[in-house]
Amino acid sequence: MTKYKVLKILKSAKGEYVSGEKISNEIGLSRMAISTAVKSLRNDGYEIESITNKGYLLKNNPDILNIVEISENLQYKRDNIIVLESIDSTNNYLKENYNTLPNKTIVVSDEQTMGKGRRGKRFESPKGTGIYLSYLFKPECTPSDVSSVSALAAIATKKAIDLTCNTNVSIKWVNDLVLNGKKITGILTEMSVEAESGHIEYLIVGIGINVNQKQNDFPDELKDIAGSIFSQTGIKTKRAIITAKLIEELDKLANSEFKVNKDLLKEYKNSCISLNKAVRVVCGNENYEAFATDINEDFSLKIKLSTGAEKNVSSGEVSVRGLYGYV
Ligand code: BTN
To answer: Cβ < 6 Å from ligand 1: which residues?
Structure first.
């Protein structure tokens, strides 16, 4: 897109004016087209000064999610990143288009109008303050080989947030990320398997991160449960910086073909706030209290029932006593 070519030139001028003529020569488009691109960038939130006989000057670096901002924060050149202004759901986008999209395609949106959460719930996805990202995997393996992907995605997301926001985020089994008792991230993994062959058609990991919302921005019913990195730390972080780190961590995960090792399991256990706590398990028609004692090698949760019997839980919702209003 022309406006992003213009943006790259303005950014590389590092605080100097660039003449309209120079930009138009570099891109090979008319001065008029450059002026239209500048208008559109201003609309997006960039402050661009223009002075006759001097040219254009980029005066700020706002929190905007676009391909230029994400790419300049990535440590390597990466294709197949689609950045949208608005979409119903980034997971749905990949589900609808997976046939024609290459493996490891990423779609990021500035807002979602129908963001999906687990168990048919909605994921609040307001414009301009969060990251809504989905990653398409087309792995050449069986579903059992990727059974740990949800937990591994939680570790990858925790790393991306901790490294860029200087936090120490906790994991609530299996993949909610929690900061100071508030849920700041949700992950929804969706998969389609061909019944006859067991071949995975797609595996989509969708990650929603509340980055810069104020606590008051959350709807009343979520205020006690949800928070954002900003509401919990008081520090605003540019979403493009977190997004780039998240892409790097998810790429590492894809390249390792979801292999679990002792270090990853240890990392997960060290951050897991569900461990050694009283929990409530809701799975299908079952709803019972137990005590979480360990995380197994496949990331299932080991629990002890009041009868003393032990059990492993690998799906369902597990509330932790003392968290999200569960007493
Ligand atoms: C949950 O905690 O219930 C899971 C929330 C997952 C939200 C993300 S945002 C990006 C992707 N697109 C969606 O529609 N949902 C996931």
So the answer is: 89-91, 112, 115-118, 121, 123, 132-134, 176, 186-188, 206-208
Tell me the helix, strand and coil percentages in the chain, rounded to 5.
35, 25, 40
Give the long-range contacts of residues 307-314, CB within 8 A, separation 24 or more. Answer: 313/281, 313/283, 314/147
| CB-side neighbour CA atoms (13 Å) of 20 | 16
pTM as predicted:
0.96
Nearest atom, ligand 1, residue 175 CA: 2
- Dihedrals φ, ψ of 233, to 5°? -120, -20
Report CA(205)–ligand 1 centroid distance (Å): 9
Neighbours of 180 (CB within 10 A): 12
Residue 26 CA to ligand 1 centre (angstroms)? 41
Per residue in 160-196, pLDDT (tens digit) is 999 999 999 999 999 999 999 999 999 999 999 998 8
